[in-house]
Specification:
Blueprint lengths: L1 E13 H5 L4 H4 L10 E13 L2 E5 L9 H5 L9 H7 L9 E3 L5 H4 L3 E3 L6 E3 L5 E4 L1 H8 L11 H10 L2 E3 L7 E2 L7 E5 L6 E8 L2 E5 L22 H18 L2 E3 L8 E7 L2 E8 L1 H4 L2
Parallel strand pairs: 3-4, 4-7, 7-8, 12-13
Antiparallel strand pairs: 1-2, 2-3, 5-6, 9-10, 10-11, 11-12, 13-14, 14-15
């Protein structure tokens, strides 16, 4: 098995929305804001090469939305999914599986693209199986008013229409052991219904793709919960359980949205679980 970080670009989000009830004077120490109160966010995905499988975890925003839409999020940077794949010697047509942690636009927007004459949509990974779970899928296709702006039908419906949609079975408890793609999956309900957090055994370490359970290192303290989360108190409980285990067992946390840090580890302190170290992926894994 070989794992690669895949940079698909960057965007900006309101810092207050990203930190909820935490005052700006506190959160800006780790996530400095610009004059519009926006903070930098990464769209960092993961590619797993495992035998004859090439698995992509999440795929960024894509590029099919309107200029007006992207005007709200100020995308920046020169990297995109195709250029990142090309640097590694891969092409999107070689992807065999697209694992979607959840269906918010910044995690699944790259799943679907315009067709050649821009009259409709088609899967961006024509040879891949797309993986979600039934509970989250049903939640996303009939969105609540709070999340409707993040669950875009043009990102979601064409996946099912293509016949390439597959569902991961739900765990009897919180953790699905050895899921269909070979890694464990933690289901979390605070941010959205049945978000999936991959746990991968890699080079003797436990590597966890954090998605929106932990967007950045600035979100490690328990009360630092996004306003986007539909069940913030559940998020706090899920974070407490996960972060304690991660600190106990030395997990390496792969950060999808942290613009500065790719990997972090945690430690126990008198104030609770806190940041231990940050790393570049290439400094930890061969």
């Amino acid at each position: 098995m070989q794992i690669y970080p895949i940079e698909t670009g960057n965007f900006k989000l309101d810092g207050g929305a990203m930190f909820g009830v935490v005052p700006k004077v506190i959160w800006q120490k780790t996530n400095p804001a610009d004059n519009n109160n926006l903070i930098d966010m990464s769209l960092r995905c993961m590619l797993i090469e495992d035998g004859n499988r090439l698995i992509l975890i999440d795929n960024g925003t894509g590029d099919k939305q309107s200029e007006k839409f992207f005007g709200y999020y100020f995308p920046f940077g020169e990297e995109d999914l195709d250029s990142s794949l090309k640097k590694l010697g891969f092409h999107r047509d070689e992807i065999t599986d697209v694992f979607l942690t959840h269906l918010h636009f910044d995690h699944c927007g790259g799943s679907i693209r315009w067709n050649k004459d821009r009259t409709g949509y088609e899967p961006a990974f024509k040879n891949a199986r797309y993986w979600s779970n039934k509970n989250h899928w049903d939640w996303a296709v009939k969105p609540n008013p709070r999340e409707k702006a993040s669950f875009l039908k043009e990102n979601i419906n064409p996946i099912e229409e293509s016949g390439q949609l597959n569902f991961v079975p739900l765990a009897e408890k919180e953790l699905l052991k050895s899921g269909p793609l070979g890694f464990d999956i933690l289901f979390a309900d605070g941010h959205t219904e049945k978000q999936m957090i991959p746990h991968i055994d890699y080079q003797g370490k436990k590597l966890v793709f954090m998605a929106d359970l932990l967007p950045t290192v600035g979100h490690i303290p328990l009360p630092y919960v996004m306003s986007y989360d539909v069940r913030p108190l559940i998020t706090m409980n899920e974070k407490a359980k996960f972060l304690n285990k991660a600190a106990d067992e030395g997990y390496y946390l792969f950060l999808e949205h942290d613009a500065e840090n790719e990997i972090c580890t945690l430690k126990h302190t008198e104030k609770g679980v806190r940041l231990d170290q940050t790393f570049r992926f290439k400094d930890i894994f061969n």
